[in-house]
């Protein structure tokens, strides 16, 4: 098995870390720390109920609670964008290719691997573009609404990808690519 370079391994782990932070902060913002959840929690407080605050008055409070988490989401997004571009440039420069999932000459397990790589790179690119549209308020309102819907889809595909990634690693370790884990961690083949 070919040894992965330090750059290759570093980009892999930077992307893994960035995806983890993006998933966690996105999940929290959508579910446990959403505007609705925070507003409901605030309104359950008897002292606050007596103030009779409407949604507009609660907005700055909710924003101040969500803001630090969202900052981490944005930092991780910049990190992912940098690492993704660097990874694509690195792969092109080194001539690294993943198996062609559409070739008749490719083995079925390699087709699946190639399809997973293709889906991963496509989904990451879509997340980067939709995230930029949302962050910088680009395009029409309908484009931003569509981008938000597509961007939130990552909360579902990210854990599915991670699970499939680990299944693929387990299969590889137990078939023809023993040592793939140690190679990606320390460069040992």
Automatic annotation (TrEMBL):
Listed transmembrane segments: 12-32, 72-93, 114-134, 154-172
Residue span(s) of domain Cytochrome b561 bacterial/Ni-hydrogenase: 7-187
GO MF term set: electron transfer activity; heme binding
InterPro entries hit by this protein: Cyt_b561_bac/Ni-Hgenase, Di-haem_cyt_TM, Hydrogenase_cytochrome
Chief location of this protein within or outside the cell: membrane
Record flagged with keyword Transport: no
Statement: the UniProt record of this protein carries the keyword Cell membrane: yes
Subcellular location(s) per record: Cell membrane
Entry's Gene Ontology cellular component terms: plasma membrane
Mode of membrane association: Multi-pass membrane protein
Keyword terms: Cell membrane, Membrane, Transmembrane, Transmembrane helix
A GO BP annotation: respiratory electron transport chain
Database matches in PANTHER family: BLL0597 PROTEIN, NI/FE-HYDROGENASE 1 B-TYPE CYTOCHROME SUBUNIT
Protein name per Swiss-Prot or TrEMBL: Cytochrome b561
Organism: Halpernia humi
């Amino acid at each position: 098995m070919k040894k992965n370079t330090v750059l290759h391994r570093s980009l892999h782990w930077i992307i893994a870390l960035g995806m983890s932070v993006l998933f966690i902060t996105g999940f929290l913002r959508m579910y446990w720390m959403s505007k609705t959840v925070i507003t409901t929690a605030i309104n359950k407080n008897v002292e606050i109920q007596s103030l009779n605050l409407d949604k507009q008055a609660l907005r700055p409070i909710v924003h101040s609670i969500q803001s630090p988490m969202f900052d981490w989401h944005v930092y991780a997004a910049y990190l992912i964008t940098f690492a993704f571009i660097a990874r694509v440039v690195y792969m092109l420069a080194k001539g690294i290719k993943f198996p062609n999932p559409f070739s008749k000459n490719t083995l079925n397990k390699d087709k699946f691997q190639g399809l997973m790589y293709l889906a991963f790179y496509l989904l990451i690119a879509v997340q980067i573009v939709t995230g930029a549209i949302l962050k910088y308020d680009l395009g029409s309102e309908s484009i931003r609404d569509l981008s938000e819907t597509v961007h939130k889809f990552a909360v579902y595909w990210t854990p599915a990808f991670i699970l499939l990634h680990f299944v693929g690693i387990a299969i590889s370790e137990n078939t023809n690519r023993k040592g793939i884990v140690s190679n990606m961690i320390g460069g040992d083949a």
